[in-house]
Amino acid sequence: MAIKLIGFPQPPNTLRVVLTLNELDLPFEFESVTDFKTIKTEDFIANKHPFGKVPVLCDGDFVIHESRAICRYLVSKYQKDAKVVLIPDDPNKAAIVEQYLSYETSYYDPPLSKIVYQEIVNKKYGKPTDEAVVKQALEDIEKVLDIYEKVLEGKDYLTGEYSLADLLHIGYAQVIYTATAHSDIFEKRPNVKRWIDNLRNRDAFKKTYA
Amino acid sequence: MAIKLIGFPQSPFTLGVVLTLNELGLPFELDPVTDIKTIKTEDFLANKHPLVPVLYDGDFVIHESLAICRYLVSKYQNDANVLIPDDLNKSSIVEQYISYEISYYFPPLQKIIYQEMYNRRNGRPVDEAVVKQALEDIGKVLDIYEKVLEGKDYLSGEYSLADLLHIACAQFIYASTAHSDIFEKRLNVKRWIANLRNRDAFKKTYA
């Protein structure tokens, strides 16, 4: 199999790559990491990721890491053969997708990853949840989603059409829905709720999260 | 002038866009924001983005500094100034290092900048514990950059948008803090920073 993805099976950074592979209808082999010691070996650090992190994708001889860079690589290489357009060719349309991709890393991901870290990762390793961090993060994401509520007025997707920008948002949303008690942050905003429902209704999403 | 940039002139986000414009040899007008209250006007709210920088290219409006840089590269890049290579594998490696900047490099430096620029400017105390931890964190990151840059002048071998996106925060550390040793004491990193600060576009941006 030409494409191999190495990663922990659960976290959003792996699943965003899986979702991209599925949106592009690409077959791949998944090599599941179960012990993080395996990604901190000298060999892994020298040949796969200098920070000792996953996911890493191998496409034939080509090795690439950093989940969003992997997604971009897959789009650049395989979008032309796919039924879905994840980054448009038109430079102005692509720029608007890039704007929302930047929202994801700048405003959306940081508070949600804090909540997930406190409520899921800390719990998993028997460490206490810092409720003050969760409270502040919830306040922060609520302000962000107020802006998304306006952005999504009259639109099913951030730019109007489904794109990589929407795709990269669903991973953390799904964790919040399935593993925390905070799904109301999405559910109580009608435009945001409609957007999340659209994303969770896609075939590639269902295949990824089956 | 077709291109107009609005932003805080000192902000690393604005400076990243200015550097990109200068690397691409593009003339532009910079409309400096000096007071945060001016960016909450109806015009900005109508565009649904209360933040700067914002770029106007004729009628086209785009915000988010990295999205602006990518737009400029995709529209105006030519053979003389390549910031993202056309070759797929090469561009993907550049993307990898752009991701490093967002995920590993910027967060600890942002904390130091926030404490030592923003707090100090607004007469608030600097939280030394936060600065200390952030310096430890960026130290570990730069240890890895030291290996990445072995035998290379730039992250992917050739100058790219990935290198460009790193220099604004580095320059802030050099110019406005006492922490430039984090770069200076790592030989490959020091060489890399020196290369970036020696570029014509850098000198024009920071004149």
From TrEMBL, chain A:
Residue span(s) of domain GST C-terminal:
90-210
**Coiled-coil ranges (or none):** none
SUPFAM superfamilies tied to this protein: GST C-terminal domain-like, Thioredoxin-like
Keyword annotations of the record: Transferase
All residue ranges annotated as the GST N-terminal domain in the record: 1-82
Q: Is Transferase among this UniProt entry's keywords?
A: yes
Q: What is its EC number?
A: 2.5.1.18
Q: Which GO cellular component terms, listed alphabetically, does the Swiss-Prot or TrEMBL entry include?
A: cytoplasm
Q: What class of enzyme is it?
A: transferase
User: Annotated Gene Ontology MF terms?
Assistant: glutathione binding; glutathione transferase activity
Reaction it catalyzes: RX + glutathione = an S-substituted glutathione + a halide anion + H(+)
The cross-references to Pfam families, in alphabetical order and at most eight, read:
GST_C, GST_N_3
Annotated GO biological processes are: glutathione metabolic process; response to toxic substance
Q: Which Gene3D superfamilies match?
A: 1.20.1050.10, Glutaredoxin
Q: Which family does it belong to?
A: Belongs to the GST superfamily. Phi family.
The name this protein goes by in its record: glutathione transferase
User: What taxonomic classification does the UniProt entry list for its organism?
Assistant: Eukaryota, Fungi, Fungi incertae sedis, Mucoromycota, Glomeromycotina
Automatic annotation (TrEMBL), chain B:
The entry's cellular-component GO terms read: cytoplasm
InterPro entries per record: Glutathione-S-Trfase_C-like, Glutathione-S-Trfase_C_sf, Glutathione_S-Trfase, Glutathione_S-Trfase_N, GST_C, Thioredoxin-like_sf
* Protein name in the entry: glutathione transferase
Q: Which Pfam families match?
A: GST_C (PF00043), GST_N_3 (PF13417)
Keywords linked to the UniProt accession:
Transferase
User: What is the scientific name of the source organism?
Assistant: Dentiscutata erythropus
> What are the BP-aspect GO terms?
glutathione metabolic process
* All residue ranges annotated as the GST C-terminal domain in the record: 87-207
Q: What sequence ranges are listed for the domain GST N-terminal?
A: 1-80
Q: Which CDD domains match?
A: GST_N_family
Q: Which reaction does it catalyse?
A: RX + glutathione = an S-substituted glutathione + a halide anion + H(+)
Keyword Transferase found: yes
EC assignment: the record states: 2.5.1.18
What's an example of a GO molecular-function annotation for this chain? glutathione binding
- PANTHER family, per database record: GLUTATHIONE S-TRANSFERASE RHO
